[in-house]
Amino acid sequence: MSMPVAAIVPDPMRWKALIVIAISQLMVVLDASIVNIALPAMQQDLGITDANRQWVITAYTLAFGGLLLLGGRIADYAGRKKVLIVGLTGFAIASMLGGISTSAGMLIAARGLQGVFAALLAPAALSLITVTFTDSKERAKAFGVYGALSGGGAAIGLIMGGILVEYTSWHWTLLVNVPIAVVAVLLAVKYVKESRATGETKYDIPGAITATLGLVSLVYGITKASTDGWNGTETLSFMGIGVVLLAIFLFIEARSSHPLLPLPILLNSIRGGAYLASFFVGIGLFAMFLFLSYFFQGVLNFTPLTSGLLFLPFSIGVVLSAGIASQLLPRFGPRYVTFAGFCLAVLGLFIFTHLTASSTYWPNILPGMIVISIGMGLIFVPLSAVALFGVGNHDAGVASAVLNTCQQIGGSIGLAFLNTMAAAATTSFIVSNQLAGPTNDALVHGFTTAFAWSVGILALAGIIWVVLVRITKEDMQVNDADADLPAMH
Q1: Whether residue 282 is found in the same domain as residue 293
Q2: Considering only CA atoms, which of 382, 317, 303, 305 is closest in space to residue 348?
Q3: Tell me: the pLDDT tens digits for 243-258?
Q4: Per the domain annotation, does 247 fall within a domain?
């Protein structure tokens, strides 16, 4: 049995192809955060109201999260290299339209369009790792690079955003994607080999419509809770419609001959545990960048550039930790490596629950930031590998899309939910202390309340992981030997 596997000749261009995949992933991840730092400047320049400013971020995450499953299927069927190039090209065009925006409507529409092409780009990039790297140790290293960018990309986006806003203008936080995408396309044409699913390649249009509308409606309803409250008519209506549509989607998938989301991908307890953990990581972690950005700029009165640079240790920590995780993964297996990561992330967020209005970067914030960053590297690398465990070549794109969907939808829900909890805590503090308005003490009370919720959410994710993901290093190696060979064209 081992002879055919040993005879596989690795793609000689695989490490150069990884550069293209890395650039693509970095663009997608940092674009969700680069706007956080630029948002005050965008709001002032384009006259965006406080009620509508969130849509500059949410338009991107909604389109991205809502269309990822379909994007994964398109990548599998149409060819992953082709879809990667289309995604990069479209992303560059949408970024250019956003960068030259002269109105709030144009900017928000461009951000939505960026999300559409990111939904093609992300699953194509991740599934290309699976079909390009056939050796378990090499694949672990490739996922190490991917995990470092997934975890550190948000912080890198904040740093880049600060530099660009300070020294150019907010327009360049979007225009910067154009030259990066052009370079990535040229490299992809030369170094990435085409691969696609074999066998039946029909599209599940009813599933695509119900999944996308269901996810968009659910996240929109949760977003409305920040302004209308959890009992608001629109909040409950959109959340209810979203849940019903997603239930219909699962009904369709169970009976479809060519499902958008093959349910066995979810029902496997190992992959299911990885997806569920990824969803809660999105909820618990992604809002951290927003709250710390507000703390740096609003409470400590730092400039956008300084605020961005303060995240640099986080980026470095994730990159170093992801490198360590890629070494530990083949040696110890993913279960306890990642559980250790969850323990560190929970500890770091717990440190943030003790912030006050008089807290400073050192010693109150930096230690927690470093601890979380080390935890994130240990989480993201095995998470990416386990999410694609035992998935054949036919379904590699959709399996990777499920992972990205869990993170993006989790992030969108977490941003809306934790922002609502923070705002409610700030309001309660103002009322109980009979204050005239939101003081720094009131704002920080809101932030620490949100961080306390994050601690509980990430602790739950860690428990889910260690209970469901019962997988050893031997299982990972056997999976490599049994994996479908990639269909290279």
Answers
A1: yes
A2: 317
A3: 999 999 999 999 988 8
A4: yes
